[in-house]
Amino acid sequence: MLFSSSPIRRRTFSCMRGDLTIRGTEYRPNGEKLPIAIVCHGFMANQQTVRQYTMALAKIGYCAYCFDFCGGSVPPLGRSDGATTDMSVLTEVQDLEAVMHMDVFREITPYTGRVLIVHGTADGIVKPDYAKKAAEAYANAELHLIDGGAHGFNRRHDTEAIRYLTAFAAL
């Protein structure tokens, strides 16, 4: 779809990286199951310097986001928390990861049915903190952390997970 004529909805968002708030803007055309693009600004700039790219992506059918890196903008133009002296390429990566995961949690929030989340405490691929965040995002979630469970459970962990599953699914 090249340059949609549908209106683009603009909405501000925020998400957290530790104690710091990341603030940005979403540009969303009409439609469902849209591809996503996140546009990042350069050093000592801010989201306004890349807004035209974000809007262009929204016009061709993307749900597009731009945001201010924590500490990465010239004051007072940046709206995210943080001091420039605490900002690095590594913190920028962490900010980007926080924004990427924010959309997932916003999408699951409207679901009000029962949810079971079983997650291993030793998962090195999907950190247990994501399971905790998901449990907080759902209105009616039950979270069970399996001590020592990795991304793929072993037989002992499977047995524990099945016990949680059968108790949850019992009619």
Summarize the topology:
Elements: E1 9-17, E2 20-28, E3 36-39, H1 51-59, E4 63-67, H2 89-108, E5 115-120, H3 128-137, E6 141-146, H4 155-169
Parallel strand pairs: 3-4, 5-6
Antiparallel strand pairs: 1-2, 2-4
Write up this protein:
This protein is of the alpha/beta class and 171 residues long. Helix content is 32%, strand content 23%. The chain has helices at 51-59, 89-108, 128-137, 155-169, and strands spanning 9-17, 20-28, 36-39, 63-67, 115-120, 141-146. The strands form two sheets. A four-stranded mixed sheet has the order 1-2-4-3. Strands 5-6 form a two-stranded parallel sheet. It is globular.
Q: What would you say about this model in short?
A:
This protein has 171 residues and is an alpha/beta fold. The chain has helices at 51-59, 89-108, 128-137, 155-169, and strands spanning 9-17, 20-28, 36-39, 63-67, 115-120, 141-146.
Average pLDDT, all residues: 88
The whole-angstrom Rg is: 19 Å
Which secondary-structure class do the elements indicate?
Answer: alpha/beta
List the total number of helices. 4
Report the order of strands and helices.
EEEHEHEHEH
Q: Widest sheet: strand order?
A: 1-2-4-3
The low-confidence parts are none
User: What is the tally of beta strands?
Assistant: 6
Q: What gap, in angstroms, lies between the N and C termini?
A: 46 Å
Biggest sheet details: 4 strands, mixed
